[in-house]
Amino acid sequence: MKYRSSLRYLPLAILIISVGFMLFSCANMSRPSGGPTDETPPQYIKSKPALNACNFNDKRIEIEFDEIIQVDKPSEKIIISPPQLNQPKIQAQGKKVRIELQDSLQPGTTYTIDFSDAIVDNNEKNPLKGFSLSFSTGETVDSLQISGILLNAENLEPITGMLVGAYSNLDDSAFTTLPMERISSSDALGHFTIRNLKAGCQYRIFALKDANRNYRFDEPTEDIAFLDTVYTPYAEPKQYADTIYTDSLAVDTIIYIDYNNFYPNDVLLMAFNEQKKSRYMEDKSRKQRNKLDFIFSTPHDTLPTITPINFEPDSNWYVLEKNLTNDTLSYWIRDSLIYNVDTLMVAMQYYRTDTLNNLSLYDDTLTMTYRPPKENKNKKKSKPKSENDTLPEVIPMVFADMSINASNSHDVNKPVTIQFTVPIDSINLTAFHLTEKLDTLWVEIPDSAYTLLPDSTKARTYILSHKWKPEGEYRIDVDSLAVYDMYGLHTDKASKNLKTKSLQNYSNLYFAITGTTDHAVVQLLDGSDKPVVQVPVVDGGAEFTYLKPGTYYARLYIDSNNNGKYDTGNYALKQQPEEVYYYPQSLELRAYWNVEQNWDIYNTAIDLQKPNAIKKNKTKEEKKEDKNEHTDSHNSYGSNSAFGGSTGGYGSGGAFPTVR
Description:
By secondary structure, this protein is mainly beta. The chain has 4 domains: 49-236, Sandwich (Immunoglobulin-like); 281-369, Immunoglobulin-like; 402-501, Immunoglobulin-like (Sandwich), CATH 2.60.40; 504-656, Carboxypeptidase-like, regulatory domain (Immunoglobulin-like), CATH 2.60.40.1120. The chain contains 5 helices and 44 strands. The strands form 13 sheets. Strands 37, 38, 40, 41 and 42 form a 5-stranded antiparallel sheet that branches. A 4-stranded antiparallel sheet has the order 1-2-6-5, with no helix packed on it. Strand 37 and strand 38 form a beta hairpin. It is globular.
């Protein structure tokens, strides 16, 4: 038997396999797998006018980039300076942006079109950040700059998209009567640069949340920032070395490149709202038959006058219940013959803001209709009485409603609140008794050891305050007839037990503060930057006791007028908002710990103080850090400030297993 060698068929086999592979490839066409994601923003190619062109007087502008682009939110992000009272037409067409100005061009003026991050590529939306185009209608282009950062005065949050402008007119009235001369807009982190300022010229800097787009502060509800400082911009020539290597170690060439540093570059603006909101009646309602409710948009020191129209009561027909600022009012009607009428009409005279933004008396006619709640159709009807039911019907005694808010896990530092559903007419404080359980006996606490006072912030509420002992057991007893309400009903006797928590449920915190000794308030904040509790600074320290364990943050404000609350600024009075500082780390408080912490409020630059964990506007890198952040030891504290501030460390806090 003869054997054939397979090698003689090899060329034919290769040919068949090659043809098959080609056919398979043609039949299974697919998109290429691609490469890494495009992260490169569009690049400027050319424009008409050219960058920094002179003697340009055409209102049509065209800019070309190296790829197809889009313009993101042009009316919000693109700022043209000097400001345009008539909005320009801006559109993207392929690789080009076309702009048509609607205002007439001023002679001998430098124009700046600041795009911020509005130019993005078509596919990945990569933004071209900080791009601007400047040209002049005259012989020269003004080229100086002023830059800085814009923060919210109350919470040091960077402000995005707020106008920042310059005036060479240094009069105080310029900000309220004239449009800004040169403008910019704060970016996502609050940074701003006002470009193309004149050499040798002095400027004042302002920020404005321009509600009516007239580029001046003429609406009292607009957010603003201002400084009394007068700035003269200037530039300093600098050089930096650009090194070219032949390989990873050998230097081929060092090129020195000239550039300018522009100053000032550290302007700090603190934005605020004067809280001069328009006053008007925000809401009126009659959810209960016997009560008329009114809510006004802002406080006022003068109460409205109310006059009946379709009923004739006596002079004492209502009891007025109001909050401290007179913007929430409730009129409780005494007479059942009046409140049982479904529709009541009253005339009310009150102060409201007129078309000239002045407060003036306004006469209003109000119809107050009560609509009973719909009956529940599924509710079982009571069984009708039979003829054999001869016993007389027992009418239950009706008492004034009272609730004592206490529990078996009462906080040591919290008072007990006693609430009523109807305004009270009289209260007998001697009918209230507080006793403490000592061993197995209940011992009455003398009246001098506790207080029972009306709550100034909450209607129909009394506060019972006592220095509760940890793990204590108490009882509150109320005699019958202790309280009479406005309808003549009295309370029944009542009793309520409470037990206080152990010290092991709490932590204590003390701040030793450098930089201020008094007229300051420290607020502890939760993870959403909201105050949990606040205490005044006393002798250079702020002490917090009986805190629930958890993560806290801290904010301090200089209480300039010593009124115990944060106050905003006022431009007419040249009054800045009260200064605010953040402790630049989180505070981890554990149960049964005392924590002592040093805090120098000036040790960290102001724009770096707020911890990233509670900051809303932050970089992508900071957002990534937040995912693994338990303490703020790696946050902006200790990094470089936009203003080159000191960033030294704080003293460490002491933690002890026993609260003393």
